């Protein structure tokens, strides 16, 4: 027995070696300990080995061609799951490429964590000229909800835990986690390393509204003559679908979804006021904001858009959001699910339904606008325009209600969100609060990877240009993404000319008759070039049925389109020129 228990020096050394781990493995272990199984990123010094090891440890690594799109994919994954999406980049330029996506995530309240390798602190602080030297932590702080740096391997577990909690608690947002190269190669006793890991418990705890704030909101609604519920993407993120439906249907109040809230209730629901948007915003007297902010997308809650004086009930997890633009008569601070559930509890049999005059007025305006839109969509001009092409996409989405829809562009975005009905929540992803272009392929990849469902990416030809190289990523991972490009030869349209008559084309004009479908064919995907609604319908059905990477170059009238979409107030010089 003594001989069996005897440990020879060589065996002891081997055993000790096996009991050590390093920063690379510890980062992966910390993520896995919190049920994070996917990383979006782009490899390079010093994080290539981290990506390799993550894959070897069973995590999924989705490699991109540009860090911004990896960050967008991580952000939309966070929005869909309520878990922070992870984006991994190299230092300095790679970090800066990811920073745009991080800032966009923070602005839109998408939980994501940007993890970047970086130069050593002692070299950065003395500005000694290291490879890709940059003070990334301080660069990230203005654009992130929180930013942390880990210098010692034993702190990796707590650093990841803090980043996760910061990303998803309260108002979600983007978090930056800085990992200097030296940290990753640091070694630590395996037992101590395991003990240093932190599994985050109740990362986003419920925040119940105060009872008196609930009563105040209910009293205000009881006295409303023309009430309206306005759903923002925060309502969709909350996953309080049952509570929101119960509140709307029990109260009988018309509701208006912002674009990424479409599908919380089907857009065809009888209480939907989407087709009467301008009317209900102007004529309502009490508006319940559910996860929606009174920013530029809602004209800051004032001006001609809002017409008659009104009072607001606002549900938001951040008390600082209240009174940001106009006075909020009944603020409800708390998580959306808890706040809406508390309202539902107070809506009894004696709760007054909206006056018939208001419901009839909304219905009349809605039906009138729907009839006008139907007449426009029924036209079949040659060449196609936005409406005739979007009619086809509308019908395809109706036939495939679980498909994910990504949408960006100027006119392509404006028209699509008004024409295409959504039937399920968290299925529509677009330019959001910042109105940025370039989210298309990143969101499409993130949605496909996260949901495992098909994606229909509806892109303006200009918007597609920001992320088009990610077609290779889509093909490499064989993702079921069908990209439809509305090709009218330019930004807004392709008809502008150089006023000098010179050789250079006008600033808004692209190569005439570009064949974007050939791009995806170069990577092994399937391309279509269509010029009629019939051809577009056939291509779409084949693309979705195939489940393969596809791209449809939808040629539309190059004269179709207006400056800045239909947001002419954001382009005053152009608007003035048209007067």
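Q: What amino acid sequence fits the structure above?
A:
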């Amino acid at each position: 027995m003594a001989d069996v228990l005897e440990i020879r020096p060589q065996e002891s050394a081997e055993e000790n070696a096996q009991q050590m781990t390093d920063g690379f493995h510890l980062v992966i272990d910390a993520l896995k300990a919190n049920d994070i199984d996917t990383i979006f990123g782009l490899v390079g010094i010093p994080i290539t080995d981290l990506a390799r090891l993550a894959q070897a440890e069973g995590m999924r690594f989705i490699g991109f061609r540009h860090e911004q799109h990896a960050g967008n994919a991580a952000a939309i994954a966070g929005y869909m799951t309520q878990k922070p999406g992870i984006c991994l980049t190299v230092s300095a330029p790679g970090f800066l490429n990811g920073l745009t996506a991080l800032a966009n995530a923070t602005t839109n309240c998408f939980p994501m964590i940007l993890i970047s390798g970086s130069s050593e602190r002692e070299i950065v602080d003395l500005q000694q000229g290291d490879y890709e030297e940059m003070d990334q932590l301080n660069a990230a702080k203005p654009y992130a909800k929180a930013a942390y740096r880990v210098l010692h391997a034993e702190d990796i577990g707590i650093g990841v835990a803090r980043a996760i909690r910061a990303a998803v608690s309260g108002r979600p947002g983007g978090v930056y986690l800085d990992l200097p190269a030296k940290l990753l190669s640091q070694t630590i006793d395996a037992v101590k390393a395991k003990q240093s890991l932190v599994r985050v418990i109740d990362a986003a705890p419920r925040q119940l509204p105060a009872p008196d704030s609930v009563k105040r909101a209910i009293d205000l609604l009881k006295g409303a003559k023309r009430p309206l519920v306005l759903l923002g993407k925060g309502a969709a993120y909350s996953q309080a679908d049952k509570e929101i439906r119960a509140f709307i249907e029990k109260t009988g109040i018309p509701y208006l979804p912002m674009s990424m809230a479409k599908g919380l209730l089907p857009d065809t629901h009888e209480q939907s006021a989407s087709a009467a948007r301008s009317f209900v915003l102007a004529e309502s007297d009490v508006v319940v904001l559910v996860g929606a902010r009174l920013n530029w997308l809602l004209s800051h809650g004032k001006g001609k858009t809002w017409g008659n004086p009104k009072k607001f009930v606002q549900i938001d997890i951040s008390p600082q959001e209240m009174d940001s633009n106009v006075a909020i008569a009944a603020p409800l601070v708390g998580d959306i699910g808890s706040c809406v559930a508390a309202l539902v509890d107070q809506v009894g049999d004696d709760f007054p339904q909206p006056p018939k005059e208001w419901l009839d007025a909304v219905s009349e305006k809605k039906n009138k606008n729907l009839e006008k839109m139907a007449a426009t969509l029924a036209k079949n001009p040659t060449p196609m325009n936005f409406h005739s092409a979007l009619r086809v996409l509308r019908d395809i989405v109706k036939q495939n209600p679980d498909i994910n829809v990504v949408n960006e562009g100027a006119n392509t975005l404006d028209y699509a969100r008004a024409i295409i009905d959504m039937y399920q929540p968290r299925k529509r992803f677009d330019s959001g609060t910042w109105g940025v272009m370039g989210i298309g392929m990143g969101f499409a990849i993130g949605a496909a990877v996260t949901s495992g469902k098909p994606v229909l990416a509806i892109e303006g030809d200009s918007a597609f240009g920001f992320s088009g190289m990610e077609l290779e990523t889509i093909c490499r991972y064989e993702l079921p993404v069908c990209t439809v490009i509305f090709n009218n030869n330019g930004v807004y349209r392709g008809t502008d000319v150089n006023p000098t008559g010179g050789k250079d084309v006008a600033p808004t004009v692209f190569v005439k008759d570009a064949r974007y479908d050939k791009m995806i064919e170069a990577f092994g995907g399937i391309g279509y070039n269509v010029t009629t609604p019939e051809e577009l319908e056939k291509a779409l059905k084949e693309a979705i049925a195939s489940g393969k990477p596809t791209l449809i170059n939808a040629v539309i009238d190059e004269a179709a389109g207006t400056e800045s979409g239909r947001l002419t107030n954001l382009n005053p010089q152009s608007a003035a020129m048209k007067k």
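Q: And what stands out in the fold?
A: Residues 211-363 form a domain with the Rossmann fold fold (CATH 3.40.50.1220).
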